[in-house]
């Protein structure tokens, strides 16, 4: 797994979560070519805009990209080339509309595939007062 951040101080935390390498955010956040060297089989993008477009442009043949955030912007300043020429798929994720059964399944999968010390670092339990 490769992670991207604009905060060098977060690199250690990202490695703790399993990142083998860290990319500087600037490497992905500027306008790029419509098709770039294939780097990724799959991408989870929380940023949007140019970062999302570059992720799509660097995704391998029949790869998948998920978009779940808009930190850089809600625009999609790219082309359809990666979708047509490489057959990539872009999935949008909106966790607000997910039913309880699917949420429980997601948490169970996290518990199975993420170490408990990692899970403890990235989660905070909240609840309604009684």
Describe the overall structure.
The chain is α/β, with parallel strands linked by helices. It has one domain: Rossmann fold (3-Layer(aba) Sandwich), CATH 3.40.50.720. 35% of the residues lie in helices and 21% in strands. The chain has helices at residues 11-16, 26-29, 49-57, 81-85, 100-113, 116-122, and strands at residues 2-5, 21-24, 40-45, 59-67, 89-92. The strands form two sheets. It has a three-stranded parallel beta sheet with strand order 3-4-5. The longest helix has 14 residues, at 100-113. The N and C termini lie far apart (41 Å). The mean pLDDT is 94.
Could you name the key traits of this structure?
alpha/beta; 3-stranded parallel β-sheet; 130 residues; two-stranded parallel sheet; Rossmann fold; globular; 35% helix
